[in-house]
Specification:
The protein has four helices and 47 strands. It is mostly beta strands. Among the domains are: 98 residues, Immunoglobulins (Immunoglobulin-like, Sandwich); 280 residues. Strands 10-9-11-14-17-20-23-26-29-32-35-38-40-43 form a 14-stranded parallel sheet. The protein has a 13-stranded parallel sheet with strand order 12-15-18-21-24-27-30-33-36-39-41-44-47, with no helix packed on it.
Length: 562
């Protein structure tokens, strides 16, 4: 071997040694899976990925079926002491067993494929094997028969067993005091307390202290208007709160002492806040209090500070109609991994639409939401953020969709959204900004009116989308749209506290935002079009159902503001 070749070999060996030393093989560790009714989430711990370029591709299928379907890859999460790949499969069928294939790889070394079988949770159903009892207000007595109902909740609870259904008849069961539900059911076999058909059943305050209790068709009306409607003790599991009316409460549903895996759906919640008072930050519609595993779906919420707040991990929030709040629509604040917020309508909140202040984990999925006319910003970004899939949202604000904190967008994947400023203003503005391995913005549509600049980014005023593309290397397929010609309905006459009409901000077929998006596996793959539309509503698809589903016939709902 010549001296020259020897030197070349030595240099190659040194280079190989330095590369493998600097970028060691990534080692996959423990894998955690969990689910809700519509979603399955994963947290896959790893070590050694100093380049943050490890990935895990995801495929899924109903267990026993043949074709694999693609889902979004897991997000690389290196944030708040988390070092992992994490993510979700969404829009699944309830109560179904899925087979999931996770293919981990790292360009610097390391690979592994794992297959998991995970079931989504079933939608709660009323039990069929227990007894049916009748209850009237009172202080003891009765045998629960139609002719001789139990008198009061305490008398009924003395016989309550898993699977029993208690039909409550007209009257006030609280008489101004708090009613305690203490008798537990079992998983998929609740103890049910529901209003008898066409009966006006009233509670003032309720505390849930046991697992697997079901409340339905009840009116929670707090007389003094400055306290709780429903709260907890003992972190109860598997509670169903369905088709109830909460009225004149401060904290209407409050998991103050914990609770996991609740189903809170199709309720009407009207707090006691004055929607004209922008200084009132107290009182929540549904306060999850940093708890996990919940489905919060199709509730109608108004006159509270925040509509829904403080999920922890593995929470689905969808189909809710939130309006006239004195602070924010949905507060994900302090949430950790696999928070999923989709298909909600948030109208004229006094402050912000969806809050990320701050994130304590990731990823979050914020999809198909319609936010219209907040007093401040469509998205509230004021503290730390990390990985978010922000896709197919229609985000409308008065003076720029994000007025401050835009630099925190650098950890987001923003794609297929519509960003609209009603007044002539920047879409985003910040004096400090960066683009790095987490940043991905593309295929969005922007309307900044006649303002001379579309973005202020890193202190630079950028006049149009090409200037933004050249400066950041992002948004290469994004477009300008015109709100005055693009929408079938766009009736937003004034900022809060003005009330805006309930509406779906649907696109006209001739709008350039139609078919202007990009395919996202498991997110928009069921659209029969050349390409998906931008924003929350696909042309030709059924309109999103916001708020309670179906009719609530058979239950009497009372509203003291009517």
């Amino acid at each position: 071997m010549t001296m020259s070749n020897y030197r070349k070999l030595l240099l190659s060996l040194l280079l190989l040694f330095s590369t493998t030393s600097l970028y060691a093989e990534t080692i996959p560790g423990s894998l955690t899976a969990y689910s809700t009714i519509r979603s399955i989430g994963f947290e896959w711990n790893i070590s050694g990925d100093t380049e943050n370029n490890a990935q895990a591709l995801v495929q899924y299928r109903v267990n026993g079926s043949t074709p694999w379907l693609d889902a979004q890859p897991l997000f690389r999460v290196n944030f708040q002491a988390y070092d992992m790949l994490s993510g979700s499969i969404l829009f699944l069928d309830a109560g179904t067993e899925y087979e999931i294939k996770l293919e981990f790889s790292d360009p610097d070394g390391g690979s592994e494929t794992r297959t998991e079988v995970v079931s989504t949770k079933p939608v709660p159903t009323l039990p069929t094997g227990g007894s049916i009892y009748h209850v009237n207000p009172g202080n003891g007595g009765g045998d629960g028969s139609p002719a001789n109902p139990f008198l009061g909740i305490a008398a009924a609870q003395a016989v309550a067993q898993a699977g029993d259904i208690f039909l409550l008849h007209t009257g006030n069961y609280g008489s101004g005091g708090e009613v305690y539900f203490t008798q537990a059911g079992e998983e998929d076999n609740h103890v049910v307390w529901r209003a008898a058909e066409n009966e006006d059943v009233v509670f003032n305050q309720v505390r849930i202290q046991a697992n697997y209790i079901w409340l339905e068709g009840l009116n929670f009306i707090y007389a003094d208007g400055n306290d709780y409607g429903l709260r907890t003790s003992n972190a109860p599991l598997g509670i169903v709160i369905r088709k109830n009316n909460f009225n004149n409460c401060n904290y209407c549903i409050y998991l103050n002492n914990g609770g996991e895996s609740w189903y809170i759906a199709d309720n009407i919640i009207v707090g006691n806040n004055d929607p004209n008072d922008g200084s009132n930050f107290g009182g929540e519609g549904i306060e999850l209090a940093k708890t996990s595993g919940h489905t919060v779906a199709h509730n109608k919420i108004s006159r509270v500070a925040d509509g829904i707040s403080y999920p922890h991990t593995n929470v689905d929030i969808y189909g809710n109609d939130i309006f006239e709040t004195t602070d924010d629509g949905i507060e994900g604040d302090y949430g950790h991994n696999n928070i999923r917020i989709w298909g909600n309508r948030i109208s004229n909140p006094m402050n912000n639409g969806i809050s990320f202040q701050p994130m304590n984990g990731a990823p979050w999925y914020v999809l198909y939401n319609q936010v219209a006319a907040p007093g401040e910003s469509a998205l509230k970004l004021r503290n730390r953020t990390d990985r978010v899939l922000l896709a197919h949202n229609t985000l409308v604000a008065w003076s720029g969709p994000i007025g401050s904190g835009s630099s925190l967008m650098q950890s987001f994947k923003s794609i297929n959204n519509l960003w609209i400023s009603i007044q002539d203003r920047y879409i985003w503005e910040t004096n400090t900004g960066d683009v790095h391995w987490r940043t991905h913005w593309d295929y969005d549509g922007y309307d900044w009116g006649d303002y001379p600049f579309v973005f202020k980014w890193d202190g630079q005023r950028l006049r149009d989308i090409p200037e933004f593309q050249n400066y950041t290397g992002q948004a290469m397929n994004s477009i300008r749209i015109d709100k005055s010609t693009c929408f079938e309905n766009f009736d937003i006459p004034a900022p809060p506290p003005a009330i805006i009409p309930f509406q779906h901000l649907t696109l006209k077929p001739e709008c350039n935002a139609v078919d202007a998006g990009v395919y996202l596996a498991n997110i928009n793959n069921n659209f029969n079009a050349a390409a998906p539309d931008l924003g929350a509503h696909e042309v030709g698809r059924p309109l999103t159902q916001y708020g309670p589903r179906g009719d609530n016939s058979g239950f009497i709902f009372r509203n003291s503001f009517e």
